[in-house]
Structure formats: C-alpha cells, structure tokens
Amino acid sequence: MMSYGNGMTMVEKIFAARVEQDRLSPGDLVNVKVDLALGNDITAPVAIKEFKRFGLDRVFDPEKIVLVPDHFTPNKDIAAAEQALVLRRFAEDYGLKYYFEVGRMGIEHALLPEQGLVRPGMIIIGADSHTCTYGAIGAFATGVGSTDLAAAMASGEAWFKVPPTIRFEYSGHLPEWVSGKDLILLTIGDIGVDGARYRAMEFAGTAIDTLPMDGRLTMANMAIEAGGKCGYMQPDQITFDYLEGRVAQAYTSVYSDQDAVYEKRYTYDVSNLEPQVAFPPSPDNVYPVSEAKGVKLDQVVIGSCTNGRIDDLRAAASVIRGRKIKKGLRLLVIPATQQIYRQAMDEGLLADFIDAEAAVSTPTCGPCLGGHMGILARGERALATTNRNFVGRMGHPESEVFLSSPAVAAASAVAGTIVHPGEVLS
Amino acid sequence: MILQGRIWLFGDNIDTDAIIAARYLSTTEPRELAAHLMEDIKPDFPGLVQNGDIIVAGNNFGCGSSREHAPLAIKGAGISCVIARSFARIFYRNSINIGLPILECDEDLSGLRAGEDQLKVNFDLGTITHLQSGREYQAAPFPPFMQELISRGGLVEYVKARLEGC
Fold it and tell me: Is residue A426 situated within a structural domain?
C-alpha cells in the first residue's frame, strides 16, 4: 500500500542533489558521479580486463577507486596469486591511493568504514554484492558487476534507476543476546530473498536508535539477501560518534522527509525476539534458535563482512571465555580487519578463543564463499555468522550451512549443537 | 534479433553460487567457467548443454553474489538467451552490460519439456513462441535506455561513445 505524502526518502534526496533536481521519484533514471568505486580480487580482474578496452592511460580519479584483495587472499593457490597480482599491478600502474595489501587489508566492507572512506550522503558502487553495507552510515551504496566497475573507473559515473523504498520499523528494545543479525534474519525470513528486490530498505525504530554501529553494518550488509538495492539507517549520534576521528572531510547528512513516500511499511515488535537461525539452503529459511536446538555441527565460523567486527568478537568471546569448544568440532574465528585483529588481541579476546581451542585467522573472506580456509566435506554441517547458506556455499554441494549471530555461533561451538547462548552460560 | 533453441528449466531463486561456484572464480575465461555451469544443482548440465540452448527459469534468477562470472559462464556455454519470470538486479545489470540476451516473461513456462522443447524468441516484438505447440508468450519490453545499451553492444561501448562525445 502506498503512503500518501509529497516528501522524499533519503535515497531519492541523495540522487536528486547529485543531478541538481528538486524532485526525483522511483523509476527515474539518473546518471551520476560516484564518490567511490570498489573492487576485490575476484571481481576487479574482470573489471580491469574490460577497463583496458577503453584504451585510457588514466582512471577518472585515483583517489576514488578502492581495490582490496580479500576473497582468495592470502593467496590460496597459483591462480589466486595471479589474480591478486592483476590488482597490485593495476594499483601501481594507475597510482591508486587506496590499495590495501595483505597485512594492511581487511574484508572490504569492514575495512572501508573503519578507514573513514565512507561518509553520509556519498554514492558508492562496489563490484561486490555486499557493498550495500555502507548504507548503515547514511550513504547510498550498492553492489554492481565488474563491467559497471570498469565503466566507473573510466568515466567516474554510473547509471541508476531510483528505487522505491520500503520502511522497516523495529519497535521495543532488544533482549539480551539478540543483535542486528537477528533483526535482519527475522526480516529476510519474513519478506523472502526477493522481498525487497530492486528496493531501498530503510531501517528505523527504537531498536535501531540504540543499535551500535557494528550491528547496523550487519543489517545493511544483508539487504542484498532480501534482493535489496541498498539498505540504510539515517545518520544520528551513533553515526557521528563512529565517524569522529575517522573522517576528516566535511559531509552532509541526508534524511528522509517526514512525509516521504514509501512503497510499503513493515513493523516488528522485537522486545521478545529470540535469536534467529537461517537453515540451509537459503537466508530466508529462518527460525527462532529454539527450533534449531540440537542441530549437530562439524564447524563454526565467526567472521565475514557481516559479523567479523569488534562487537561481534566481543559477543562471541563473552560466551566462550573460560570454556572449551566441543571435541570433534572446529571453530574458526576471523577478525575482519587488521585493526580489529589488533584490538581483539589487546582486549584479550584472541586469548579467549585460542584457549577454547579455536583457530584464529588473518582477515579473509575465505570460508564464507567456499574459497579457502575452512571448506566443508560432503555431509558436513556448519554454523556461520556469514550471510549466505546456498547449496555448496562453503564447500561440497552436499554440505550444509546455517546462519546465526556471533553469540549463538560461539555458544553452539561449545555445545557442539545449535543452542541459545543463555543455555551455555547458565 | 530472433533466436531459436532448445530449453532447459530451472526454478525460483537460482543464485549465482549455483550458476558458478566460488571455487571456480580464479579464472575469468568464459569457456573455463562454462565447464562448471550449474554444476552444484545439476551436475550433468555442462555435458548436456549445446550451443544455442535457452535457459528458462522462475523468479529472482541470479540472486546473491555480484559475480559477473555467472552471466559469463552462461554465455561461455553457448546459451543464447535466459528467460525468467524475474531477475535479481545485479545479474540483470551484468547481463545487459556484457551482452547476454535476457528476457522477463511473467507467464508460466515451467510445463515445457526440458531438453526437448524449442522456443523461438523475437526480441524486437518481445514474443516467445513454443515451436511444438505454436503457443505464443509475451515478454516485458526493455526500457529505451536498455535498448540503447544493448544496441551499442554493451556498457563499455556505450560509455566509450559518451566519453568520446564530450
């Protein structure tokens, strides 16, 4: 049902300002300058190949292209090493300011906000579907393919159809052990993997007002899992506090009008929400953790662009501290960036994981997409804090992936079966 | 443009991990990718598919990862066209950008016989004809902007022309 009003949403206003029009509506086509264009070691080699077809000796702006080798790095094999080399050489040849080598890098969608490269009101494209993460900071950010990245590297521009916006309101306050991951899994489970196809997803409500930035990034990150073009929170004090000390440049926050037109509204009272678990083989196959209780696990993965940030590691460590993981199970913990890794070390979180007999890895997307560092054998079952559990996502086509929050993942690693964190701590 | 080919059927929400698994993403060569097309959900598919065949699918085809390797693998296998009830947006964009013909058709084609039935697709009229029965289906027309992208041969040629124009 349409809401009646004349106002515009945050995304409509970001685009309207860019094309210097008073008003834009869903469906309008715009060609805009992008503020950042991102690629990784899987998508950028294809983009670079396409870019060469332009026959240019320069990119549109060497300070607005970001390349992060994070998927198959540290290089998993010779072919991956060759792809990483394509990025490294391109970054050198074209003088890119933001190329993050192994040792400095992190998983791109944790890294860019952390490094202060994302500001409210920006337009960001990335040849990675989880580029939508940056909406948590009040930017318009969306995933594209390699050819789109190539065209943006050449021209600095990209075309978009202004998306209709769906508003998601979460009222009440989150119970203990319930996080941003549970809110977004609940939402995807409700609307389905195409429930927000081509739509902008606006996240709001009292539970969002108090949700820390790491939880917001988790939610925006998984907008794509509902088919969303972007997912966003409007900037507030939590945003400004996060940006403080990271972002030197001035920025203008953009807000949806009070009478903005939304295509649809969903409301959820989350005061009694249980942690959520997505069953294989789809992120919309979601049940409360109580209905997943007892599912036996071979591997647990805590990390990824969805849940590899410091709050995620703190939540996991608070469950696992002083305990051992279940014999016969593997727990992999992957801090998403070098800075998070270092902070987790300083806070003693890595010691908690290692003492529990977890393997702690350098930042990589590795296992999330079945690349390396934790591939599943036939018939094996994993619980992961990642974003997708499609057939074969983490390894053998006959392996299974369940998705949850870091707290549920840590508790389940101790129990050996999927369990509510409260049960492990009691 | 008119295409004709034998069809293969796929369901709803076919994700790009299913189209081409991540373990094969250390190459960008369409022919190499094609050898593993749909492998995890239909292991015999790479051996069955022939030049000119058409993929017919349900809703939200190509959801998930942005990997352009997915339409590249489909193109590399010689698939002439993908018809779906709807496409995920990044896959749609990627297909147009690399010149893989795709069509949205909201009619139910799931009763057709995979590997046997033939469709004739007229892109100018947006019509899809089932050769065995003569039945005609209507596809959604491309917006004018997409038509221009397609007629220029993809995004790179389109942007090249724009850059040279200014």
Answer: no
